[in-house]
Amino acid sequence: MAPERGTEDPSAEIDPAFEAELHADGVTFDGEDATLLRTIDETGSLNAATDRLGRSYSRTHERIDALEAAFGPLVEPERGGSGGGGTELTARTRTLLARFERLRTEFSGVTAVEETVYEGVVVDRDGEIATVQTAAGELGAITPPETEAVQVTIRADTVTLHSQAEAPTSAGTSARNQFAGTVETVDERESVVSVGVDIGAEQPLTALVTQGSAAELGLTAGASVVASFKTTATRATPRQQPEA
Amino acid sequence: MAPERGTEDPSAEIDPAFEAELHADGVTFDGEDATLLRTIDETGSLNAATDRLGRSYSRTHERIDALEAAFGPLVEPERGGSGGGGTELTARTRTLLARFERLRTEFSGVTAVEETVYEGVVVDRDGEIATVQTAAGELGAITPPETEAVQVTIRADTVTLHSQAEAPTSAGTSARNQFAGTVETVDERESVVSVGVDIGAEQPLTALVTQGSAAELGLTAGASVVASFKTTATRATPRQQPEA
DNA sequence: GAGCGTTGTTTCATTGAAGATATAACGGTC
DNA sequence: GACCGTTATATCTTCAATGAAACAACGCTC
User: Fold this and answer.
1) Same domain? A158 vs A50
2) Which listed site, A164, B102, B136, B185, has its alpha carbon 20 to 30 Å from B56?
3) Which of B71, B103, B162 sits opposite A16 (nearest CB)?
4) Using one digit for the tens of pLDDT, what is the confidence trace for A158-195?
């Protein structure tokens, strides 16, 4: 079943992606709908929009009807008049588009940011919050019910770094997960720095901070830092138990 | 174009959703593929899996071929033998499924968590990092290029709260955005608490913390707290400039 | 060697989504 | 009132995805 090709490059690029959606009344508004509405806004007419997008008028018209049945009035068409008429967006539509764009931005944040994954075992639990034992120590994470063996993923943009002197007392902050470590790698990007922190596990914990923060904290290889992250921001997923 | 229905309920539920995807070599692996592979794993045969899922064998077989061409060997089929044969997953497939599940979990975190949105204007910029002037004051956020008028969205699970006494000095932490405020609302959930903090803007900043943190910090209405969040975790999206 | 249930492979049928086309209605301008 | 470009609507065609069905190949058990 496996053709020979595909085997040759086991490290092929596998990229995360997504399709953002807004659901209402059984109808799903997706990226294609968003560009349709944006094009209508730019061209001022449904006809011009379908031409530019290479879509058929009839189908597009149907689609807008379906969307309006679920999301409420989205366009204000006018026929006749100078220029023959046209269609404009309602205020609600602009709000909808803005919301969709925010959603898409959050999702693309997820795909763009590095994350570190630790394997662990649930040792304690309070509802959806579990304490997980990992190679780096115990940490809290949101965990699906009835799972023991888990992978914990920590997004780099949720990890904040502190100078050792200014490390917060655990009682005074809502960031319950704190790990002292030493900076292992510093990867400077355009305006942001990705920092790998050795916190005792095999895999370093990577944190994404601004260049300003990196400078103020003196983040160079070998520096001592404290890394903290919230348990409500870290999530665990079930892990396959070793077979035998 | 707008049928009368739809107008009647302007506050209809609009729910965010997503389709998680993994892309390789032009082929996209989606949730349907994941359940297919999981079902093969559970039933031990492609035939049984297609029966359970109500899909045609031929189509399913084609799909697996296409996936393997892009993602590498995913299944190990055997034909003949006792029971007629069967197909099992490769180790790579389990890794792939685990990765997909982590991705899906992160996305569902985005849709599940509350967020607060502030409108603002970019007043300074360093690459993708911008300083945005909002009703709550200045804050840093990742911002798309060439945008001035923005909406800034702050996920509740990225906001950490500190007791006023233990508020970190801005030089000692990589959480550059800090706002002192007073607790306005406290919404206790199963094992987590959603806290609305008045930081001077019209809309309160909502933070999601564990019940343990809420208790230790003494989070009740009227309490003084400091809310902080990282600029690499907050994102801005373009905002429609007022028309005229 | 017959039987069995699986994997492979091909061919044909079905179905649903989208495009293509035609026509009516509208309301300004001229 | 003729003209124009648009919206509205219906019908037909096209195409791609999927299912259905048939058949060969395989290898173990008996």
Assistant:
1) no
2) B102
3) B103
4) 999 999 888 777 778 889 999 999 999 999 999 999 99
Chain A residue with minimum CA distance to B94: A240
Please, what's the b/e burial string for B7-24 (b: 16 or more CB within 10 A of its CB; e: otherwise)?
eeeeeeebebbbbbbbbb
CB-nearest to A6 from B5, B73, B235 is B73
The single-letter DSSP state of residue A242 is P
In this prediction, residue A160 carries a pLDDT of 96
**For B159-212, what is each residue's pLDDT tens digit?**
999 998 887 777 788 899 999 999 999 999 999 999 999 999 999 999 999 999
Task: Tell me the residues of chain B between 96 and 155 that have a Cβ less than 8 Å away from chain A.
Answer: 96, 98-99, 101-103, 105-107, 109-111, 115, 117, 126-129, 140, 142, 151, 153, 155
Q: Which residues contact A223 (CB under 8 A, 6 or more apart)?
A: A182, A183, A217
Look at residues B81, B112, B143 and tell me which one is the last residue of a structural domain: B112
Residues A229 and A161 in one domain: yes
User: B128 to chain A: which residues are within 8 Å by CB?
Assistant: 190-192
